[in-house]
């Protein structure tokens, strides 16, 4: 009887709790009012939980589990069946911030739709499918060796700012709406652009204040003040001896006091732990947590075992106060209330976005449009392009038929992908296209697979065994036989085998191999998740990766001897699961067979460059010329250069389609290639965009958002963050300069007519500039305006302050108006120790690239 009374009392208390309308449950109140009330109901331990990126549910208050970490760099990342747009550095080449807004409006729709679908299915809120997206990356791509430069909008602060603002506006939705569609994030704050290998220990204590204010901070300031970005992510490294996530100068004096940022600061993942594991500025997790919070970091991202869960212990030790913690939890809860994720879906418009918007016709068209606009023609000798849609064409190269290369990094998986080979074949009959990979990206050998020589239990291939547990325990749920090189993924909700869950599963792959001869073989394997390779019961490689990176593992075998191979795999940490495996012997590249195959074919489209298996974030795989995801030189890998030379020496017309997220020193290729098209990583429709340009169905208009240097010799110490000698603003000896790109027509820029040539420091200058299409095809020019302060001895030679895409019909002239706001004349003033518009004479340069020969100039006097 007592138990029944107690149960009834508990049920009555629960009913009363939820029938009572607490202020935080009232959607009519402001997010701040609701957050303040909710804080009053929380325990200290619950407050600490809310400050972790994986924020567990608090059922007694109706707070659901929430994940702060999703990615939307160029489409919703780490999810299948989404639209994959070009990599950001490629989109920057479009100089089209209006189109960029449309793209990220689409990305936010797709993210909401996928999130809504998951909620409707009762699936747990998890990493990479949430309403907080850590995008855009607005770091300055100051050094072409940086592997993550592909994620940025290039080397120029103004271009990065313009593009970044539109990304944020597209992601977050209308500024006057009650709810935010998503929360966007400006990262990585600040002075961050490699090297990847030292980012957890690097200390930058000699950054010139002019470089800081003119180069490294402007984009972050623009996103805070012009786009009202809701999150800023602090970076890994130290600035002036303090880790960025514990740096009061960055997070308090600049971000909060000068820029008046009111929203969330989130840490890069593991950055708080770096305080005591790498930077050695804190003694342990408790001190690191309190240091991060005091400095201004509101949410900690950590792989496992969040340091911020130690905050109650920090309060107990007197390292921090609960009142200080409340200040940070307030911002956390305000962000969640702004999303409407604690309210009834019926009153949140974005909760109604259906799954049918994902990769719809409009979004596919946006992906193709942006891929076309990103195409940047660097060389076109004797107008070899566009190609004719007749006769035979050879398509050669390691990137010609590679789908994942097109997707870039921090990507989702599309419904379908058009490779460059597919695109070219669509313009001709298949019988007129000859394809051969030709060579690898980097390795000067090719692997002859021995996979078909394996057998187990009398059956060819590998035996695969699966468990729906992450530790190879419990009942076996599936057993299959794999006869081709292994390449499995859960992307797009694909099971590894029938009955195998998409998460929390493990697998074993085993076979026997009899060596045909004594030799060195190589295993080529990679995985997202836990992976371990055994040979005859001995472990030869073990890793736990968050993305698939192919490792090359040499192993000596003896003739006639049998070897038992076994691989163990487990899906962990909410990542999509992937595994790839092949093995065999390596043989030297020989172009004799290739050239014999190409007899009778005059034109070769060579599709090469790099890929995200070579350049990217903190990668453990190192190849010659690459280190930890960065490059040690910027030359094209030797094996590709040799292939291009062989093709040229055979008398072929060589069209080089380069796919990369960074600049390559093409000095030899300008001689061996008749045309060079920079295609970046152009997304799901990239192959069609490339083909449209090659065959003249689209007139290229892309312009370089980064400098293409002549050689690695022009580069400074990678860890030196001084801008001297870097980018178009501080060097003028480029192979292909910032802002450069060819068209199939020609343009002439007339003399600018300024509205006035003398202004005061709060006035806008309006320029009217005629742009003439002097060729025979309609085309698009990107008019660029640069500003330099005359007699500025240590400033940039010029800096971009305006641009506009201009469509001009053949033989016509279009007047273009560009406004230079007062901030266009703002530079760092050493006497005032700040950015300022100061009196003096300014040179305004305008034209079609940053190269002096492509620019005209006029003088403006600021009174």
Automatic annotation (TrEMBL):
Keyword Methyltransferase: no
Any Pfam family: Glyco_hydro_3
Gene3D superfamilies, alphabetized: Glycoside hydrolase family 3 C-terminal domain (3.40.50.1700), Glycoside hydrolase, family 3, N-terminal domain (3.20.20.300), Immunoglobulins (2.60.40.10)
Source taxon at top rank: Bacteria
One term of GO molecular function: alpha-L-arabinofuranosidase activity
Domain called PA14: residue spans: 457-599
Coiled-coil segments on the chain, per record: none
Signal sequence, start to end: 1-19
Alphabetic keyword roster: Hydrolase, Signal
Gene Ontology biological-process entries: arabinan catabolic process; xylan catabolic process
Family membership: Belongs to the glycosyl hydrolase 3 family.
PANTHER family listed in its UniProt record: BETA-D-XYLOSIDASE 5-RELATED (PTHR42721:SF3), SUGAR HYDROLASE-RELATED (PTHR42721)
Protein name (database record): Beta-glucosidase
Organism of this sequence: Aquipluma nitroreducens
């Amino acid at each position: 009887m007592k138990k029944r009374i107690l149960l009834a009392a508990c049920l009555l208390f629960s009913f009363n709790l939820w029938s009572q309308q607490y202020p935080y449950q009232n959607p009519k109140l402001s997010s701040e009012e609701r957050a303040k009330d909710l804080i009053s109901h929380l325990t200290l331990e619950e407050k600490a939980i809310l400050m972790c990126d994986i924020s567990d549910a608090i059922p007694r208050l109706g707070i659901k589990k929430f994940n702060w970490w999703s990615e939307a760099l160029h489409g919703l990342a780490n999810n299948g069946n989404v639209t994959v747009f070009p990599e950001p550095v490629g989109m920057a080449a479009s100089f089209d911030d209006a189109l960029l807004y449309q793209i990220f409006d689409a990305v936010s729709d797709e993210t909401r739709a996928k999130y809504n679908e998951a909620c409707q299915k009762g699936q747990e809120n998890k990493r990479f499918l949430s309403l907080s997206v850590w995008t855009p990356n607005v770091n300055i791509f100051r050094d072409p060796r940086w592997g993550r430069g592909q994620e940025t909008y290039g080397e120029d602060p103004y271009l990065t700012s313009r593009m970044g603002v539109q990304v944020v506006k597209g992601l977050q939705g209308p500024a006057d709406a009650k709810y935010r569609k998503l929360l966007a994030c400006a990262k990585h704050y600040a002075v961050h652009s490699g090297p990847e290998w030292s980012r957890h220990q690097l200390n930058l204590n000699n950054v010139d204040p002019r470089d800081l204010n003119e180069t490294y901070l402007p984009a972050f300031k623009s996103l805070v003040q012009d786009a009202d970005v809701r999150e800023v992510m602090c970076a890994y490294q130290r600035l002036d001896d303090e880790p960025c996530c514990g740096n009061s100068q960055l997070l308090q004096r600049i971000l909060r006091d000068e820029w008046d940022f009111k929203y969330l600061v989130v840490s890069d993942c593991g950055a708080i732990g770096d305080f005591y594991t790498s930077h050695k500025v804190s003694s342990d997790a408790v001190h690191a947590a309190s240091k991060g919070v005091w400095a201004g970091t509101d949410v900690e991202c950590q792989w496992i075992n969040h340091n911020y869960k130690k905050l109650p212990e920090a309060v107990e030790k007197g390292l921090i106060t609960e009142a200080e913690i409340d200040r940070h939890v307030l911002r956390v809860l305000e962000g969640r209330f702004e999303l409407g994720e604690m309210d009834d879906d019926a009153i949140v418009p974005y909760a109604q976005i259906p799954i049918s918007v994902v990769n719809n016709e409009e979004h596919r068209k946006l992906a193709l449009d942006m891929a076309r606009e990103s195409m940047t023609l660097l060389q076109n000798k004797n107008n070899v392009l566009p190609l004719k849609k007749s006769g035979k064409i050879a398509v050669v190269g390691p990137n010609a038929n590679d789908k994942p290369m097109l997707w870039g990094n921090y990507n989702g998986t599309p419904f379908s992908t058009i490779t460059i080979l597919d695109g070219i074949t669509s313009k001709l009959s298949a019988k007129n296209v000859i394809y051969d990979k030709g060579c690898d990206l980097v390795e000067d050998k090719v692997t002859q697979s021995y996979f078909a020589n394996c057998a187990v239990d009398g059956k060819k291939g590998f035996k695969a065994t699966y468990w729906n547990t992450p530790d190879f325990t419990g009942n076996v749920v599936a057993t299959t036989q794999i006869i081709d090189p292994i390449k499995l993924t859960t992307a797009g909700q694909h099971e590894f085998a029938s009955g195998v869950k998409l998460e929390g599963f493990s697998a074993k792959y085993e076979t026997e191999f009899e060596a045909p001869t004594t030799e060195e073989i190589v295993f080529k394997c990679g995985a997202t998740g836990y992976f371990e390779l055994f040979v005859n019961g001995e472990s030869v490689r073990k890793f736990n990766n968050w993305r698939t990176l192919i490792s090359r593992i040499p192993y000596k075998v003896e003739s006639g001897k049998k070897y038992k191979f076994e691989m163990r795999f487990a899906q962990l940490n909410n990542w999509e699961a992937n595994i790839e495996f092949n093995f065999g012997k390596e043989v030297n590249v020989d172009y004799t067979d290739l050239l014999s195959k190409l007899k009778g074919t005059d034109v070769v489209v060579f599709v090469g460059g790099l890929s995200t298996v070579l350049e990217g974030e903190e990668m453990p795989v190192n190849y010659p010329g690459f280190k930890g995801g960065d490059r040690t030189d910027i030359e094209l890998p030797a094996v590709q250069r040799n292939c291009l030379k062989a093709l040229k020496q055979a008398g072929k017309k060589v069209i080089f389609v380069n796919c990369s997220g960074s600049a390559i020193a093409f000095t030899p290729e300008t001689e061996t290639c008749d045309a060079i098209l920079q295609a970046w990583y152009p997304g799901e429709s990239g192959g069609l965009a490339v083909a449209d340009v090659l065959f003249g169905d689209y007139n290229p208009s892309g312009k370089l958002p980064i400098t293409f240097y002549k050689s690695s010799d022009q580069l400074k110490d990678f860890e030196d963050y001084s801008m001297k000698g870097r980018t178009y603003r501080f060097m003028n000896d480029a192979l292909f300069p910032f802002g450069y790109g060819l068209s199939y027509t020609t343009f002439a820029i007339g003399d600018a007519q300024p509205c006035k040539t003398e202004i005061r420091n709060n006035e806008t200058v309006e320029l009217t500039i005629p742009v003439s299409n002097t060729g025979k095809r309609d085309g698009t020019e990107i008019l660029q305006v640069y500003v330099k302060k005359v007699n500025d001895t240590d400033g940039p030679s010029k800096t971009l302050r305006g641009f506009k895409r201009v469509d001009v019909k053949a033989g016509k002239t279009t007047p273009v108006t560009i406004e230079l706001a007062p901030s266009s004349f703002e530079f760092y003033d050493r006497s005032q120790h700040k950015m300022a518009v100061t009196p003096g004479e300014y040179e305004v340069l305008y034209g079609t690239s940053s190269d002096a020969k492509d620019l005209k100039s006029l003088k403006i006097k600021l009174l």
